[in-house]
Amino acid sequence: MNKRQEWNRREFIVKPIVWAGAATVLGQTDLLLASPVNPTANSPVLQRTLGKTGITLPIVSMGVMNADVPGLLRRAYEVGIRHFDTAAGYKQGRNEEMVGQVIKELGVRDEVTISTKQASRNRPQNVAEAKKRFIEGVESSLRRLQMDHVDILYHHAVDSVEDARADGPLEALQSLKKDGKTRFVALSTHKTQDVINEAVRLNLFDVALVTLNYTMAHDAGVLSTIERAAKSGIGIVAMKTQAGGTVRPDAKLPKQLPAASQTALLKWVLNHDFITTAIPGFSTYEHLEQDFSVARNLTYTDEEERFLADKSFAAQAEFCQQCGQCKDDCPKQVDVPALMRAHMYAVQYRNTGMAREMLASVALGRGVDACDSCESCMVACRNSVQIAKKIAQLKSVRNELLSC
Ligand code: SF4
Ligand code: SF4
Fold it and tell me: What's the whole-number average pLDDT of the chain?
């Protein structure tokens, strides 16, 4: 095996922890200084309208999920970002607290679009109880955000048609909108095709947050589904746009991808004009500046064109598209799509909290412990993800993740 491709267990364990520790210190002291350089400062920021909401946004927004440093949000506002995306579950609510505090300190609540998300995993069968729990969750979010309302409220991680139709969350969303706790209601999904088709049919959602990146370029079904939703008036926000970011110790790629790969990938998504804005989850000032440069210029550079022309990226990135096609393949009923997501959070995003939360959400008896590490894994990915290798990596660090 090539040394560069070899899995380095120590790196996997240590880096996220060191990163998390460093981020905590820097978050307290704001020692990370913003880069003063903005190479495209003279070009206008490209803006698009978010479907029937009528909200106009720069095409690059901020997914706050991976950010631990308040100064990074302040800098994001300073460079021109006007949409900040968080969720109740991110860092057990501390992510919302950080967003709320920074927006309050900046005094710019009326100038920005704030979105948050409420999950309904393990929802009770009783509709009234499910609705009550959802509303209580959103009210807690508003307290953490120090806001009386958000602009976009997502039903989070709606990964089946049944979840999209679930009465409890749907009634809660409508009630919260009526009470002015959110201006618009939305859903987020990793199962784009089925769930977005259902969202169009239901005609109840103002916005949808969907996974879209270059590894899905061949998938005409996903692209046409999203376009159809946009044409129906649903505002489309894109996530997972860089298919896992620059750090790739898990894939058949260089461990650190060049900056041009990230801007190329983001431009590819945003060159679909039915995408209003993207929420890259940058966690450094350098990546913030790189990503936001795309908002001023969607034309590919020569280097970006070369990167996209190399068709091997899609296979080598080993990006789990959460298509779910492998979900019934394991004789031990291991929830492979969920474990692939946990792996992405832990390895590529270096977000131990999200990885831990994802592992904890897997149904009893379907997590890493259920996997027997068979000599030959019977689950084959339709998209080149090396499932057995990733599960083995998760197993090797599970205890460290769960004790963080
Ligand atoms: S190795 Fe593959 S087939 Fe075997 S238990 Fe694990 S996921 Fe299932
Ligand atoms: S591992 Fe492959 S087949 Fe399974 S959900 Fe992910 S992309 Fe789909």
Answer: 86
Residue ranges and CATH numbers for the domains of the chain are 32-312 (3.20.20.100), 320-403 (no CATH)
Residue 319 burial class via C-beta count within 10 angstroms: exposed 0-12, middle 13-18, buried 19 and up: buried
Ligand 2: residues within 6 Å at CB?
A: 320-326, 336-337, 340, 381-383, 385, 387
- pLDDT bucket at 271, cuts 50 / 70 / 90: very high
Helix spans in 203-310 (H)? 220-231, 259-270, 285-293, 302-309
| Residue 205: pLDDT over 60 | yes
pLDDT by residue (tens digit) across 370-379? Answer: 999 999 999 9
387 Cα–ligand 2 center, Å: 8
Tell which atom from ligand 2 comes closest to the C-alpha of 319.
7
Is residue 2 very low, low, confident or very high in pLDDT (cuts 50, 70, 90)?
Answer: very low
SS3 208: strand
Pairing type for strands 150-156 and 113-119 reads parallel
Q: Which residues pair with 189 in a beta bridge?
A: 210
Residue 146 identity (one-letter amino acid): Q
Ligand minimally distant from the alpha carbon of residue 326: 2
Q: Which atom of ligand 1 is nearest to the CA of 373?
A: 1
Helix (H), strand (E) counts: the chain: 15, 10
Per-residue pLDDT for 26 more than 60?
no
371 CA from centroid of ligand 1 (Å) = 5
